[in-house]
Amino acid sequence: MRQTYLLPLFVFALAFFAYFPVFAKDASSKSFLNIQEVQSPGGLSAWLVEDHSVPVISMEFGFKDAGSKLDALEKQGLTQLASNTLDEGAGDLDSQAFQGELQNLSINLRFNSGRDHFSGSLKTLTRNKARAFELLSFALTQPRFDAEPLGRMRIANQSRIKGSMSEPDWIASRLQFDKIFEGHPYSQNSGGTLSTLEALTADDLRGFMKRLGRNNLRVSVAGDITPEELGQVLDSVFGSLPDASVPAPKPGALSNAGKTFLYVKDVPQTVIEMAQPGISRKDPDYQTSQVMNFILGSSGFGSRLTEEVREKRGLTYGIYSYFMDYEEIQVFHVSTSTATASVNEVIELIRGEWKKMIETDVSAKELADAKSYLVGSLPLSLTSTDKVAGLLLSLQMDDLPKDYLDVRQKQIEEVTIADVRRVAQKLLKSETFTTVLVGKNEGISDADIIEHLPNVE
Amino acid sequence: MKRFKLLFPAIALALCVCVYTAASVLAKEPQAQTHAEKVFNAQTFTLDNGLQVVVVENHSVPVVTQMVWYRVGAADETPGKSGIAHFLEHLMFKGQSYPGLGEIGPGEFSKIIRSLGGNDNAFTSQDYTAYFQSISSEHLETIMRMEAGRMRGLKLPKEEVESERKVILEERRQRIDNDPRAQFGEQLDEVLFPNHPYGTPVIGWFHEMEGLTWEDATGFYQRWYAPNNAFLIICGDVTVDQVRKLAQKTYGLIPRVEVPKRSRTVSPPFIARSAVKMTHPVVREPVFQREYRVPSARQSHDDALALQVLEEIMDGGPTSRLYKSLVVDNKIASAVNLSYMSSAWDDATISLSGRAMAGYTPEQVEAAIDDQLRILIKDGITDQELNEAILRLQAEAIYARDSVTGPAMIIGYTLVTGSPLDDLEYWPQHIEKVTAQQVQDVAARYLDPDAPTPTPYVEGYLYPPPPQTENAEDQP
């Protein structure tokens, strides 16, 4: 492939994913996406995009603030292990019986552990929907956490960690989280450590379940289902959940500004991860920051970082800048990798682009191209029912309104050259970069050498 | 979606939009019943210059995807020039000019696509090289003109070669040289395909990539890139008639070119059994991996179908035979995998691997896997296993329609590795005809660990370093 696979999926999560099964061909129609708000008889709600063209239903659901940030230090990996074991037996069905039904009915059920939120997804053929929703309900309300699958999932996680320990980009990411979030639960290893996983028990998992309540639940659905039927489904799947008590998020700040850390590894290419404070999706300047970042580094070919570092100098296969907006701390990242001898040159080039963006206006063409892409590519993301549902859920988890995508389009259209300069001056602070390097210790000065990777063993 | 067994290699791709709607095509077709059974309802025609065009109409959104697949890949390279197919793929974005199809400067191609609100990318494999864009349907003619313009109109400035060669070397460092497991896989392939180009990595060997030149790239391009050695897939908000007109206006301007017949060296018989052993300091858990050479879908349609069912039964999920036996019941391995990649021009591969649990060696994992193969070969499969596997596979064909990349990608893999479109369109019906006996037969023919003559496979063992002292287990 011509472009790097480094590009993390979440980079474009918001900007590019959308779906328009009921795309408005009528020019007078205002909204791209026909989102219905469904209320169940029992008082639960969900967002729905109805689409009967393929006999498939995708449901995405999330529990706000139930993610791994609540895992105690000595119980790192609890949320992850819960996500692995919730579908390993429930009610009268043991692990093999439960998994056997999912498999034979071609039901895709997954639970996902996020740092902020806990979520899950269910995708089923219409013909198997009744049993699919029933199995989901069992998993959420009567999970068994039997010893055999618990042990097996523990080992699978430990094995994953041991495998990851050979990967420079994983090491860089682990170290970066440890340093930029020092003192905050985000700094922990959400996937668990070899020893914390060893100690986790079925009782811990039962304790975890208290985080999942009907009060912090959000549900989005796309596909072959009517609002009336979805209302019934909501009550039957989620209706018996109790209320959960999870702490409200509190704003934090990044640590280790201006410092460089090196984890020495004998590989021919050094991984470079740089981070500075980011911007919240609820900030009025958020869309302007997306336009700025498209020009700076999120767009691949044509972005200034890719032009300077890859196209002009051949120093990397991929370089990207991207925002990560967690609930409590927002981050702006740059990710790349380069041969050992070019590390300092690449870092200087990145800093140079920061300076240029602050000190000079972007060109009218750069701005027009960025807006044209960010607005025009939205219909492109007509992907699949699970991606529609996923996008809707991400809006709900961030408490954004149903018309967010329409507002977003309008706000992007209105961004000016002066806006980009102002936001660049406000946001870009290269002196606050926390830099993490994984590679050979050659030519690197002023770096703290990291001997042991934290929260892995 | 887990995977679409026919032809869906795990290749991560950027956005590629194409969603199937049955109604759009059915309304026009008198034989609606027959067509309703097809997976994608693709329509196809061929231009005078030999370019085959495949169209999947979908009018639910004003978006189109274009893919051009060239029937040339890394396995068609001259020995000593490994990586040139992939290097050329990168260089195809470095400038073009063709009479009637306009001119584009170096590095401008992707920028133009972006400025129109579209996405584009490309990828290279052993058997093919493909380029694609997704964009608002109003820009279809523009992107067809652009893509057609580089089919024979590459104008590659010599100075672009130097910096882009550094980029592919960085790509190799990132994908392979920084990752011992990728290096291990590369070594296994090298032994599995003696005297056959599949033994050479697509990205190339580092020492050969360093020497690739402008002449190498343009020579490969001139030799292989031609309308009669490619096909075009358009999915989305456009009609077949519109595509036909646009294709004639753009790709139709390019004359047919004489292209060499694909000729590949053949492996000698496997007489001795090969094993690849690798110890690496960062490896923490030993791995057993075995790679077989088996028929591709082009070589044997029936065997490929039976092997797909076999794969589903042995490793189709958490209750499948290998996982249940090795991971759930006997706890010998922490993970086990059997995957059949049927889409290849020459031999396809089955990859079988297991990660040993603490206290077990890769050789013990191998023995446990072989026990399962012997049971399969001796006793076959039950009718229930067969029917459940077929139902699950057919369900994947439905899920494949609910996917962005699905239709265009799957059609591309099918055609480019030499299978007819109907093999894909009627795949659910074909898979339904596979019998238990066929599954048992292909197991015996290709996977028998006790076969008297060695079957073409290679075994690999990836070890962690030995403990440094006798008290190693006390160390943190």
What does this structure look like?
The complex is a heterodimer of chains A (457) and B (476). Chain A has 457 residues and is of the alpha+beta class. Chain A is built from 16 helices and twelve strands. In chain A, the strands form two sheets. Chain A has a six-stranded mixed beta sheet with strand order 1-2-6-3-5-4. A six-stranded mixed beta sheet of chain A has the order 9-10-8-11-7-12, with helices on both faces. By secondary structure, chain B is an alpha+beta fold. Chain B has helices spanning 22-26, 32-36, 84-91, 108-115, 140-149, 159-177, 180-192, 206-209, 214-224, 240-249, 301-315, 321-329, 362-379, 383-401, 406-416, 421-425, 427-432, 436-447, and strands at 43-46, 52-57, 63-70, 96-98, 102-104, 119-124, 129-136, 230-236, 274-279, 287-294, 333-341, 348-356, 457-463. In chain B, the strands form three sheets. Chain B has a six-stranded mixed beta sheet with strand order 1-2-8-3-7-6, sandwiched between helices. In chain B, strands 9-13-10-12-11 form a five-stranded mixed beta sheet, with helices on both faces. Chain B is globular, with a radius of gyration of 24 Å. Mean pLDDT of chain B is 88; it is low at 1-35 and 470-476. At the A-B interface, helix 3, helix 5, helix 11, strand 10 and helix 13 of A face helix 4, strand 6, strand 7, helix 6 and helix 12 of B.
Largest sheet, spatial ordering of strands of chain A: 1-2-6-3-5-4
CA(first)-CA(last) distance of chain A: 35 Å
User: Shape of chain A, please?
Assistant: globular
Structural class of chain A: alpha+beta
How much strand of chain B? 15-25%
What's the overall geometry of chain B? globular
The helical percent of chain A reads 25-40%
Major beta sheet, strand line-up of chain B:
1-2-8-3-7-6
Quaternary organisation of the protein chains: heterodimer
User: How many extended strands of chain A?
Assistant: 12
Number of helices of chain B: 18
